[in-house]
Amino acid sequence: MRRERNYSIILSNHAKNRMVERSGINKKSTVRIAEKAYKDGISQSQATGSLLRYISYIAGKSYKNCDIRIFNEKVYVFRDTKERDEEGRFIIKMVTMLNLPLEYKKRAFSLQKRINEEIE
Hints:
Elements: E1 7-11, H1 13-23, H2 30-40, H3 49-61, E2 67-71, E3 74-84, E4 90-99, H4 102-119
Parallel strand pairs: 1-4
Antiparallel strand pairs: 2-3, 3-4
């Protein structure tokens, strides 16, 4: 039985432009990749060590009250709009996407691998 998700992802124009600019993907793929990043990305509660410190730094510096996820060597910043769509799902808005600094990429990759193994 497949569980329905209780949220809907929307992207700001800024987020779409940053995804295209920094990832080289086309605009049609942006929502799909943002949904995957939100669902499968490393959250602040899953991060440890230097990766956790980096996420906390980003959250404290510019993105207070945002949900930050790391997915495929990118940092995705989401904000809960506290609104619901016509189907009653919460609307989560992607604000922007940042490049993950080189010194955190290896740690993020190994943590993502470990999380995926725990899920399977």
